[in-house]
Design brief:
There is one protein chain. The chain has 370 residues and is of the alpha+beta class. It has two domains: 27-48 and 108-268, Jelly Rolls (Sandwich); 273-366, Sandwich (Jelly Rolls), CATH 2.60.120.10. It has nine helices and 26 strands. The strands form six sheets. A nine-stranded antiparallel β-sheet has the order 5-4-1-24-21-26-19-18-17. The relative contact order is 0.18.
Length: 370
């Protein structure tokens, strides 16, 4: 992957994010096809679009695909490139000097659009502490879900934590023998609805239900342990199950605590913190440093044109309701529902002009370690 250099001209500060579809071990993506303007939207093995990623997708057991998962962007002259390459050509400009000193050219978070046509396999991700100690990796995979839509005729839900914990030894047996009925009995359905924000810490077994469209923001890794080897005809290859380590090693990742649904909702369905409330312009912090040291998510609800100052960090802006125009200096991009743009750390801030009252914009920023 070639680096891009901007010695003779200033790099663009506002980048249009292009769909970057990624293969996964479940079906979905029909709603993403619609957002992308496909004439014949279908569910397929590419149910996710990685809209802010400098991390390649891990798909062991599938045919290799170069640069899979690396976010693609469009420049002002309609040329396309990889976000990671653009950052490598001007790292302090895009990420900020402090960020580069501490994290290098790694973005610091990973964001996706995810559209499930089937319930995902039960899985778990390591905590950052586990990843550093046992995997030699800088990040685990804490995740945050912002629910955008639920397909018609479907009750949106997730599995999250054990409601009926089997304990480590029995869980090992359930996975080894693929006792799916017994696995199902470990979980209750946790209902989710549009506009809710859910946090999934490392170690927590979970599965996204069918028919859910969401923004997913997480620590920047693709580390996953998959507990179900086949669902609805989709088979997880052996190489894609246990991170190449084996089941006994992976059993140390799980939180075997027992959490009733009400406790899960109290712990994991996050309540926004109001930062600013003016006529036609409301800003909430959805996730901050109290829940993760990797990223912050804020939500702007706009009935009118307004601005948001920069603080020396880059940002991903995603329209999650309605439409609008994001402007940075003399650069601007029109965004519809589900569209996103990347804003350089060197920007002074952004202006958002909603297409109609009731528009909503998410801003995702990395958190620079102290």
């Amino acid at each position: 992957m070639a680096n891009l250099s901007y010695r003779d001209s200033a790099p663009p500060r506002l980048l249009t994010v292009l769909p970057t579809r990624v293969r996964r071990n479940y079906r979905g993506g029909k709603l993403l096809d619609r957002l992308e303007g496909s004439a014949v939207p279908v569910d397929s093995d590419r149910p996710e679009s990685w809209i802010a990623s400098t991390v390649e997708a891990a798909n062991p057991g599938l045919p290799p695909k170069a640069a899979e998962g690396l976010t693609r962007i469009k420049l002002g002259d309609d040329t396309e490139t990889i976000l990671a390459a653009l950052i490598a050509g001007a790292p302090a400009f895009y990420l900020g000097a402090r960020h580069v000193e501490t994290l290098g050219t790694q973005l610091g978070f990973l964001a996706k659009l995810l559209d499930s046509a089937m319930r995902l396999p039960v899985q778990v991700h390591p905590t950052s502490a586990f990843a550093r100690e046992y995997l030699g990796a800088p990040f685990g995979k804490l995740e945050v879900y912002y629910v955008l839509a639920v397909r018609q005729g479907v009750e949106g839900h997730i599995r999250l934590g054990f409601q009926h914990s089997p304990g480590r030894d029995r869980w090992k047996q359930i996975i080894e023998e693929q006792e799916i009925a017994a696995m199902d009995a470990c979980f209750d359905r946790i209902p989710v609805k549009c506009g809710e924000l859910w946090i999934v810490p490392g170690g927590m077994p979970h599965a996204i239900g069918e028919g859910v469209l969401m923004v997913e923001v997480m620590e920047p890794s693709d580390l996953v342990v998959r507990c179900e080897f086949a669902r609805e005809g989709v088979v997880v290859p052996p190489a894609g199950r246990f991170m190449g380590r084996g089941l006994d090693f992976c059993l140390g990742i799980f939180d075997y605590g027992e959490y009733p649904p009400a406790e899960i909702r109290r712990r994991s369905c996050l309540i926004p913190t109001r930062l600013l409330c003016e006529p036609g312009w409301v800003v909430d912090r959805l996730v901050g440093s109290e829940r993760t040291s990797c990223f912050e998510i804020c939500r702007i609800q706009a009935d009118r044109r307004g601005g948001c100052a920069n603080d020396g960090r880059c940002a991903l802006a995603i329209v999650t309701r309605g439409s609008g125009v994001v402007a940075v200096g003399d650069e601007q991009v029109a965004l519809n529902f589900g569209d996103s743009c990347f804003i350089a750390a060197a920007s002074d801030g952004l202006i958002f002009s909603p297409g109609a009252p009731g528009a909503e914009l998410l801003l995702c920023r990395p958190t620079t370690p102290d």
